[in-house]
Design brief:
Largest sheet: 6 strands, mixed
CATH superfamily of the largest domain: Creatinase/methionine aminopeptidase superfamily
Number of strands: 18
Number of domains: 2
Shape: elongated
Strand content: 15-25%
CATH class of the largest domain: Alpha Beta
Helix content: 25-40%
Length: 394
């Protein structure tokens, strides 16, 4: 069974659980930027004309698509009923809705979750126009909860792909540690990691210009700007933020290296203390990650460790979903800041995979940041792959 078959079967159970009769994904010309949920529930690739994918809680799978897409959809076998059309999708769509007579029609719009907000405004207006004068116009609801559960609850097949991506990421990191030397620029190290991506036959988990991030020393800007021409020097912390996309699924991992000065046998006390603090905060966060716990609670526990140790509060969430994307929508492990909307209030669920990340600056040396990928289990959570427990020293 393909992953799309697995996820569509999972969608039916989620609709039953949430009491939603029908989930409707309405798209067109998806090669120009399709609904983010489409690869989860649709296998053949792109759709051209207006297309409606209907999943019901009773188990029906209906695809209403342009005639020239119909054969590919039928061959894929995910949608048991494939309805082709020529001049307008409206008659076939209304006929299906009249037969199903759903009490709710869940659509892909959301104020809070980017991965659940795939219905473009123009397509929404078109759909509302088609439904004008029918009882279905008053039955539209957000599919945010459906999409959040579907993307978040990883099947065994999805977890295997994420685990493989983490394993490849750690292999690339190890080879990078062996390659890098004082005098090299951040950009040279980043280029080496890009060459390894090609060697392993995988892609970067986000924009290649910023994947990896390589930050050497106190003057390197930490964030999404990518490597610079700053050179690695002894006495520098080198921070990495990197992930791969492998078989459609991502990893997102941060790692730390310290280059000893000629007169040092071990990293300075300030560096070791900062690393221990960041490591402890990560471990505290993972210890809090259980089904039913809100993301805001996990974030607060980790944040408290950092602040009580005397470091400034970090200005980002402690964690986010990882899946088909490095930032995979849904809830976050974050504070109740306005920019995050309701996402810190969503409870964790078994099967979710998060990247847990935070860091602190060490004046004169650079930035220490760690990030691990973590699976939420039925009772507790576990690291995917081997976490960094000690500072890599060169």
């Amino acid at each position: 069974m393909s992953l799309v078959h697995e996820k569509v079967a999972q969608a039916h159970s989620i609709l039953q659980e949430q009491g939603i009769d029908l989930w409707l994904t309405f798209v067109r010309e998806t090669v120009s930027g399709g609904d983010p949920v489409l690869p989860v529930i649709f296998g053949p690739g792109d759709l051209t004309w207006q297309s409606a994918l209907l999943l019901t809680r009773s188990g029906e799978r209906i695809a209403i698509v342009g005639r020239f897409d119909a054969e590919a959809v039928a061959r894929d076998g995910v949608y048991s009923t494939v309805v082709p059309y020529d001049q307008s999708i409206r008659p076939a769509l209304l006929e299906a809705l009249e037969r199903l007579n759903p009490a709710q029609i869940a659509l892909n719009y959301s104020r809070h979750d980017v991965e659940a907000d795939g219905l473009r405004h123009g397509m929404y207006q078109t759909l509302v126009g088609y439904l004008e004068g029918t009882p279905f116009a008053e039955r539209l609801v957000s599919a945010e909860g459906v999409v959040r559960a579907l993307r978040g609850r990883k099947t065994a097949g999805e977890l295997a792909r994420i685990t493989a991506a983490v394993d490849t990421t750690n292999k690339i990191y190890q080879r990078t540690y062996d390659f890098m030397q004082p005098g090299m620029t951040e950009r040279q190290v980043g280029q080496f990691m890009h060459e390894l991506l090609a060697e392993y036959g995988v892609g970067p988990a986000w924009n290649p210009a910023g994947c990896p991030a390589v930050n050497s020393g106190p003057d390197s800007p930490v964030g999404h700007s990518g490597p610079t021409d700053l050179r690695i020097e002894r006495g520098h912390l080198v921070h990495f933020d990197f992930g791969v996309q492998q078989d459609g699924y991502c990893s997102d991992i941060q790692r730390m290296v310290y280059f000893l000065r000629p007169d040092e046998r071990t990293p300075p006390a300030a560096v070791k203390q900062a690393f221990r603090t960041v490591l402890h905060a990560i471990q505290v966060a993972v210890g809090e990650m259980k089904p039913g716990v809100r993301g805001q609670e996990v974030d607060a526990a980790a944040r408290q460790v950092i602040v009580e140790a005397g470091y400034p509060e970090y200005m980002h969430a402690t964690g986010h979903h990882v899946g088909r994307r490095a930032h995979d929508g849904g809830g976050i492990l974050g504070p109740a800041w306005e920019r995050y909307g309701e996402t810190p209030n969503y409870p964790l669920e078994a099967g979710q995979v998060y990247a847990v990340e935070l860091g602190v600056a060490v004046p004169g040396y650079g930035y220490i940041g760690l990030e691990e990928n973590v699976r939420v289990g039925e009772r507790w959570s576990e690291f995917i792959g081997t976490p960094q427990l000690d500072l890599v020293v060169r």
